[in-house]
Amino acid sequence: MRVVLKPGREWAVRRGHPWIYSGALDRVEGEGAPGAIAEIRTADGQLLGRGMWNPHTSIAVRMVSRGPDPIDGAFVRRRIERALRLRDLVRDTNAMRLVNGEGDGLPGVVVDRYADQLICQFLTAGADGLRPAVVDALLALLTPRGIYERSEGSVRTAEGLERRAGLLAGEEPPPEIEIVESGRRHLVDVRGGQKTGFFLDQRPNRDLTATIARGRRVLNLFAYSGGFAIAAARGGAREVVSVESSAVALAQAEAAWRRNDLPPEAATFTRADVFTYLRGDVPPVDLVVVDPPPFARRRADHERALAGYKEVNLQSLRACAREALLMTFSCSQHVGSEEFTQAVVAAAADAGRSCQLLARLGPGLDHPQALAHPEGRYLKGLLVRVDDGRA
What we know:
By secondary structure, this protein is an alpha/beta fold. It has helices at 11-15, 73-87, 125-129, 131-142, 154-158, 203-212, 227-234, 247-259, 274-278, 302-318, 337-351, and strands at 2-5, 19-21, 25-29, 37-41, 47-53, 59-65, 95-100, 109-114, 117-122, 146-151, 164-170, 177-181, 184-188, 217-221, 239-244, 267-271, 285-290, 320-330, 354-361, 380-387.
């Protein structure tokens, strides 16, 4: 099949953006089911490449190739080989993202490594069609103990696909897998945990936490399974308070704390809603880590999400001692980096706190994004130093 764009609508594709929205389409020649590989051409007939077609979503085409290459098993293997060469730059961990969707030229395909197990997600109809080729390439290139699928989430639902989970090859993953990251041990439930079991994208920010936590009293909000708590403690924090609403996640965090042989008296694990907790009597802290789940899972949630980011950062800033550090994040695709920054700026103004921007934060090298694809930069963060404006 062939997709022809309206005149002048090819510029984003030529710049390297991987998505073509339905409004840019002039006509479709031939028929193809959702997920079919389509030839993409300009209004005057020039070939732009090949992409994954879905007539039922606002993103009508996800570009895969910028040339005439057939999208077959050999093509998929070459893309995965290229992705693995980048991961050679990642050190001091046995867990990382091996394939990051559009960022690695395979839209909708996610592959995460946890020790000797691989966890795959096929999030679009086109990615679904590439499943056999992806599995074959992974088996040939990596010889893992097992490959397990966890294809779920809002993107897959929008693509008209049902949730699917199960073994693709090799052995079933155990209930918990221990991974090691910069010497820190974490316990991961790859079958039932958030995302594919762990927030691999936050690894460099956990490493940063370990370098700035020495001697500080740390408040770890939305703690999940304790990644930032363990990083802070290993970095010499004198006390870490972790707040999380999930009893299961909190139990994992406590188990991981013990696995790292950390002093029990230095940790407090509190099951609570973070917003409710922050409105209580919170003793002053020297470092706050705010790593919430996405506040905007849909475009319609945008304004509510901005209000949520402002509120959680306002209350966190109020809990900060003088010259404390605030490390705060958004992982909402529908909230831009500058919008998030302005929400934190507004929170600081309402809290009456003067803040210095120390760093803008993002994911590690194993989470590449296409340079021309700002929508792929979902994780954004700020490290700020907090004061009261006095000399």
